[in-house]
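Cross-check.
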Amino acid sequence: MHRQRSTRIIATLGPASSSLEAIRNLHEAGADVFRLNMSHGRHDDIAALYHTIRKVEENARWPIGVMVDLQGPKLRIGAFADGAVTLTEGQRFRLDLEAAPGSAERVTLPHPEIFSVMGGGVRLLLDDGKIRLRVLSHGAGHIDTEVEVGGKLSNRKGVNVPHVVLPLAAMTDKDREDLDFALKLGVDWVALSFVQRPEDVREARAIIAGRAGIIAKIEKPSAFVSLDDILEEADGVMVARGDLGVELPPEEVPGIQKRIVRRARASGKTVIVATQMLESMIHSPVPTRAEVSDVANAVFDGADAIMLSGESAAGAYPCEAVSVMDRVAFTVESDPMYLAAVQSDLLIPEPTTADAISAAARQVAETINAAAIVTYTTSGSTAIRAARERPKKPLLVLTPKLATARRLALVWGLHCVHTEDAKSFQDMINKACHWALKTDLVDIGDRVVIMAGMPFGSPGKTNTLRIARASSEHA
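Predicted model, tokenized:
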């Protein structure tokens, strides 16, 4: 019944994966969480996808998580009179607020907020970094630049401003409308784009008010600089390597990815590695060897989840891409080096009862060779702390809240079951052993380590550690 791996897989839905059959096939192939991209599709389309996921979940063996990804502010130039121009190295080129169609000398940049933070020597990257401009001077309504790397530039291409904190909020009016819509739908996670500072996350948290978890997408150098503060505010982070690879030299991204994963894990926050993981599988039924190594490295780093974007949303082989991820993650986690790698970063538990119990549960399970660890949770916080320990033994989560089970579908190693809370000490043992047997995590005669809180039904009260043995009476 349970997944044979701990690393979770996120699959983005789109034109190639919008039907009931397609979503069911993706889930059966290994997708644990589905991503709905608010940059594409109307609200009616997104709602249809969400309800189809929940229809699939009715016959699934475990809860399914749903993440909505907000678009965030998009910086783009205007249009050219002839549709495109060619810029040459060394020439002057102006960006301004004029509404007139662009030419080889100038183009509109309809974002007055960013003109005030320009400075001499700042680089502007256009069209995913293919065009590079160096700022020479600027005024209230213009930026004069020199072309450092030229080429063809066409209408409405994107603009990146590396190493500059822009005076733009992470959420636009569209994002607020999309967020309100998504929360009413009942999504489990919200991915916040264009995060630059912790204040961006605080704004979203005030609106979300606990109705969903918050993933801060780390896609700008300024976000990486403020990573520790952002981690304090968010429930997790996403290593969005696409934009990071535009705004930073590409050779720096792998090291930054590892540092983000390590720091997120140390803080007990969920961490996702995303973008171009199996990009070639948009058109090919098999990945490149380099892509397989890329996925494997993210798993070896101990990321909670790895994500597919265009591969599952618009590619020709969505199920094959999920299957490849599933097999790579399973194979890496079966490698003797894997647990040594993910446990090498274990930090001293924080001075809380939940952390002490979680650390003790891992150590006890390994010492007595228990078959599984079972944790009761209402809010999900205890289960997340248990996952932070990266135990060698499977983690079974029992929760009376379906929303909690769905949200925890994103977290490393958690096998979630929606069931009634324990009513007594003996009921706690019986339920834990019953579900451990039913999910095939243990066999009759195996020992189980149980974490729970007393009195039962009180969130945040994890204070009990119990060893039990599964018997035929629990089946």
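The mean pLDDT is 93. The chain is about 35% helix and 25% strand. Passed to J.P. for a second look.
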